[in-house]
Amino acid sequence: MELVKRIEVLIEKYFAAETSMAEEQELRDYFSQTDLAPHLQEYQPMFVYFSSAQQESYGKTVSLKPGKKRYLAWISVAAMVAVVASVWMSNPFQPNNLGTYNDPEIAFQETQKALEYLSANLNIGIEEMSRLKEFEQTKNKILKNN
Which parts pass through the membrane (predicted)? Predict the structure, then answer.
């Protein structure tokens, strides 16, 4: 009867995450027996499973190639630099065109030009993003195959 009381206390501590490794081993040992108190039998499958799961291991060796990650990181950095440089080179900032217009008609025409310019650059940016998505998909295929 004293053992059952101790096991009940240990179960309470176990569910409160306050047990030590030795106490958990005591619980596993108790529930591996066939003669259990009737009100504690509901916990037996859980502790039997934990005992068997503890013995499981992964037998295959995992080979890690340390230099490969560095190589892929530099490829992604180079791709980003290429994208930024191509967008900047195709449309460099022009500080001479900054100013105000006295004639509203000229201001309207210049605003239309600026919006067309912005639209064209957004379309180029969207195309570049689709290229990045293709690059990402290709990279994922390569990483999965190796």
Answer: 71-89
